[in-house]
Structure formats: structure tokens, C-alpha cells
Input
Amino acid sequence: MSLPIERADPSQVDALCAIERQAVQLFRGHPAWASYSALSIPPDLLLRAINRGLVWVALSETGAPVGFVWLDTELVGDAIGIAEIDVLPQYGRRGVGAALLEHACEWARAAGYRRVDLGTLADVRWNAPFYAQHGFVTVDKGGPAFALARQRDRENGFPDRLRVFMSRALAPPANDAWTVWPAPAKLNLFLRITGRRADGYHELQTVFRLLDWGDEIRLRRRIDGEIRRVREVPGVPAQDDLAVRAARLLQRYAGVTAGVDIEVEKRIPMGGGLGGGSSDAATVLVALNLLWRLDLDQDVLAELGRQLGADVPVFVRGRSAWAEGIGEQLSPLALPSRHYVVLDPHEPVPTAALFQAPELTRNAPRATISSFVSGETTENAFASVVRARHPRVAAALDWLGGFGQARLSGSGGCVFLEMRSFARAAAIAAQCPAAFTAQVATGVDVSPLQDALVRHREATQAT
Output
């Protein structure tokens, strides 16, 4: 039975939890039932995985989820785990679970992972025997790779004697195969404009906070030198797409004859102040530097990125950072763990018009890192201008401001609220008015792109 498989959507959390509760009924009478019946998927953890693009669903003919697979990136090194795979009992033995498993393994291979791990039951035919049919082998569960899984079992009261651990090795992607790369979003935790340079550019100060959520870039090497975008981005012609422009710029600079197919899965709102286009460009530069085997250093890539946009260098360097100049003078910052409700008011804000606004403050006093860390510096120079000119953004700030200090990111129009608790952030996002779209993301000091680069570099060396 062939059903479409798509990335899960946050709106499907309840449906996926319900699938898990129905699937677990199959274990009635098994010694594991006492543990399974007492446990359920934490919705906030599932939501976080969905937001990070780590959950896929199989859909029925009516578009309803009938099964899902959830990948776990908390393993060490080049391994990724199967956190959960469930199918509605009435869809059992139709190949749905097998299709979900293979889909997840193929994505993991394209993302540079070399191994998929999981824990399961040895004596249940749709557990260990099923995985064995798909290339998984039983491994020593006392090994360090499974320490976290064993700890979780102990915390959940799951009997150690019932669990076996299995692994499947993944061959590196072939030279002409698709590879998958993250392009994370960013927030500006504050933004001041402190002056204007002779060349017309504005001097600014800001803190870039990278997120664990963003676009996904798929790249496939070509030998004919052509750079081709294989998926349309609404409203963005290929010649204007920063991902395409980055590939062409790098190709010209390095004088390479190779080309690339580019596919961008957009999740970051365009014109939202979250750096989507800049992040896409940075990911293409970093990834093609490896795939084309150019071995250019990070400073060169950052300078190429600066030619495409002032925000590109921070994504190339892959660290949350204090920024000055036009945004290219970067000092990495270690920031406290925080979660963010990011609200899209569906009103793109043209940055150029804001910089030309006569009411924009261009001579703010310089901030210091200590004033930012103390919480004294949180303002955004564009906020008052955007509020006055863009009523939907103003409404989003007002609504989100009912829960705390809502802020504008970059030049907008997306706004955000910082929270200490992911669960609290998710609860606020769940109340989002229909006029807006809410996303919950977690701040990271090191970009997911840097982690992907390490994996892909090791995979490339193995080919």
C-alpha cells in the first residue's frame, strides 16, 4: 500500500499522540504492557521535533495521518535514532511502517548520518524481526551509544531485560545523490542604529540569536556546470533567489566547472526579519565549498556572503553573536537557554523603505554587551516605524505583548517573545489568533549547519 509521506505539521500533534495510544494497545498481554500503558508521548517534545523537521506522517486518502516516524538527534556523533514509529492498527501489515522507516533512513543518509539506532522488543514480530528485514542488526546494548536510551528506560521504569538495541549502517550519499542541509532562522534580540557611513550603509549593533528551526536546502552535484533551481519559490524568480546567486557567485570565484541542482523547502517567512534568504545563501556557500571540494576557509566564504547581504556572514560563521558595523563584525556569544514564540503577521516589511524613513533614529548611543546581558538593552530601532506603517505587525506585537515583552526581529514583520519554558511557549503559540501563524523555536549557540558540515565532511571523506 503506497500512501503519501509528508513532514508533520504542528497542528497534527494531537492526532499523532492518538495514533501512538492506539498502537500501544497491541502490546496488551505482553510483559512490556505495564510500562507502555503508563507512558505516553509528551506533546511538547513531539511538537519540538516537528518544528525541527524530524517527524514525517503517512496520510490516508482523505489526508488524515495514519502513521508517523520521529527521529531523535540526541545521539552522539554521526548516529541518529528512531524515537518512535507508529501506525494505526487498521493500517497494519500494509507496508506503511516500512515506507515510513525507509523514508526516515533515506533522509538521514542525505543529511550525512552514517547510522540509525533504535530500541525495540526482541519477541514481537513487528518489532525486532521487522527491523531486521530492513537492515538493522542487534548490537551490544551496554555500549556508550545507548547510554542515554538506557537511562531513559530506567527513568520510565522499563525493564532492561525486555529491550534490545539495533543499528543500521548507512552508506554515504553517492556523488550525484541529493544531500540535505539546514538553513536556520535568526532573531535580533535587540537592534540599534548608531550612525551612517559615507557609502550610505548604516552602522548598527545587534545580537543575532540562531534558532534550531529554519529552511531546508537540498543539493545535488552536477557535472555540466549548470546551476538549476528545481522547486519554485513563490514570488522569487530564480535569478533573484539568494541561494542561486550564492551558488553562481561561488562558482565564478572558484572557477569550478561543476554545477548543482538546488531545492529549497521554505519554512522561514519571507520578508519577516528572520534571515531566511541570507541563511539559504550561507548554507549553499558552506555546503558547496564541501561538495565541490574547494577547501576555502570560513573568512573567504563570509566575505562572499557579505557581497550577497549583510546578514549572510553570521550564518556562514554559524554562531550566535554580537554584531557591529553593517552586521559583519561578529563576536560569538554564549547565551542562556531560551525558547521563542515567533509570530508571523503575514505582512512583509520592505527593509529599504524603513532605512529611508525620516523618523528612523540613526544616532542612538552605543550599547555594550554588559547592558544587553543585564536586560537594559532590548529595543529595536525599527519597531516604532514598523508599528506606525504596518498595522498587522502592530496587532501582532500587541497580542503577543499580552504575555510578556514582545519584540520585532530585524526590520520585521515577524515578532517574538522569549520564554524560559518550551512548554509555556508552546501553550502561548497554541492560542495564536487565526490572522497570524505561530512557531516555537529554541535558541542555539552553534548553528545546526555547523553540525551538518561535520557529518557531511566525514561522509565525503569516506567516499
